[in-house]
Amino acid sequence: MLILGAIAGLFTTWNGFFTPSANLLMSMGRGKLVFPFFARQNSGGVAVYGQLFVLILSCCGPFLGPNLTDSITSFSGAAFILSWMITAWSRVMCRVRYPDKKRPYRIPGGIATGIFAGTVSSAAFIFMFVPSSPFYIGATAVKMFFGWLAVGFLFYLVSFPQRRKLTNEELEMGVFGSALSDAEKEG
Fold first, then answer.
1. Fewest CB within a 10 Å sphere: which of 22, 63, 146, 156?
2. In 10 A of CB 145, how many CB atoms?
3. 11-29 per-position pLDDT tens digit
4. Cα four-point dihedral sign 140, 145, 147, 151
């Protein structure tokens, strides 16, 4: 029973990252940030090529060995903290630039909560790259993080001519899709 419970826990975690990763690739494909074939969906709205790509990467992962798997997990943690940091500071910037905009949810503590979240996540992110810190992710993970950052920057540069042809509205609709139109209907 314990083994089945542990395996079920792994599958729920895997599923929690699997579908959002494929949907992220689909949105980036629609917004011309990665190759456009990732934008394809089936009739049910499933990101077909994104799911296939994530499936292949997921199936290869266990065969990389424990040392590389640990480094991938560590550098993924740094990327996760970076996304929280960007989200927190983006929230603060939106509250400062557009204070009167209608929002569907109010965060307790107002802008102070956003500043606190941005500060804590920034500190955690920085300490992940300081070798004497208890949060240090390791030399291999640091190299992988900056390598992955370079690949992302390269994709951004290569896709620039395609994105330049799009208007801001087309780019937003491509990346955010129906979520953007639903939010506009509400507010």
1. 63
2. 21
3. 776 777 788 888 888 888 8
4. positive
